[in-house]
C-alpha cells in the first residue's frame, strides 16, 4: 500500500528456516514481515533478518 507518496511493503515468507537475504538494502520501506508461527523466534535471531525483529509477526496474525 502507499502512504504519503512513499511505498510501503509487507513480506510474507513461508520458509520455515529463514533464508539468507544477502544485502537487505532493498527492504528499506518494509512495514511488516509475516513468517510461519513456529519460526518467528528463528527469524528474529537470524543475522540478516534481526534488523527487522520488531516487524516480524506470525503468519496467523496476517489479515487482508
What would your notes on this structure say?
By secondary structure, this protein is mostly beta strands. It has one domain. It has one helix and five strands; from the N terminus they run ββββαβ. Helix 1 links the parallel strand 4 and strand 5. The chain is globular and about 30 Å long.
Strand portion, in percent? 25-35%
| Dominant shape | globular
The percent range for helix content is under 10%
Overall structural class, as computed from helix and strand content, comes to mainly beta
Kindly state the number of beta strands: 5
Helices and strands, in order, run as EEEEHE
Oligomer: single chain
What is the tally of helical segments?
A: 1
Spatial strand arrangement across the major sheet:
3-4-5
Biggest pleated sheet = 3 strands, parallel
Radius of gyration: 12 Å
Mean pLDDT: 87
- Low-pLDDT ranges: none
Amino acid at each position: 500500500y502507499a502512504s504519503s507518496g512513499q511505498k510501503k511493503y509487507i513480506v510474507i515468507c513461508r520458509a520455515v528456516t529463514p533464508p539468507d537475504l544477502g544485502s537487505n538494502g532493498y527492504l528499506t520501506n518494509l512495514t511488516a514481515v509475516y513468517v510461519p508461527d513456529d519460526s518467528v523466534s528463528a527469524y528474529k535471531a537470524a543475522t540478516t533478518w534481526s534488523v527487522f525483529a520488531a516487524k516480524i509477526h506470525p503468519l496467523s496474525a496476517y489479515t487482508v
